[in-house]
Design a protein that fits this description.
Length: about 120
């Protein structure tokens, strides 16, 4: 990793307000278009509780539930630097310590939880 870079994994849940209303799980966007932001947040909070409590592993949850194509890598986005991600996502990631999991983060893509891995 280059100096100043971080590495993170995330779980993205898309909703009606997401700029792209389709994903690998929902190519037609039917589920996403019917999902309110509140419903997406509630689902993500429940998933976060499972991970934080140790009931589920972050990468397994990401592989099953994340609307991002990074799901096939357990949510891993690899290393990135400032200016490469949407601002709220970047700020949340840089605030976390390695191994910490964020609260809900809103971006144009949807709602996320982020785990800083490096």
């Amino acid at each position: 990793m280059a100096s100043g870079q971080v590495r993170a994994s995330h779980i993205l849940i898309k909703h009606q307000g997401s700029r792209r209303k389709s994903s690998w799980k929902d190519p037609e966007g039917r589920v996403i278009s019917a999902t309110t932001r509140d419903a997406a947040v509630a689902q993500l909070q429940s998933l976060r509780r499972d991970v934080v409590s140790g009931t589920a592993k972050f990468d397994a949850v990401a592989s099953t539930y994340s609307d991002c194509s990074s799901a096939k890598r357990g949510g891993d986005l690899g290393p990135f630097g400032r200016g490469q991600m949407q601002k709220p996502f970047e700020e949340a990631t840089y605030t976390l310590k390695v191994g910490e999991i964020s609260e809900i983060v809103d971006t144009d893509s949807g709602v996320h939880i982020i785990m800083r891995t490096g």
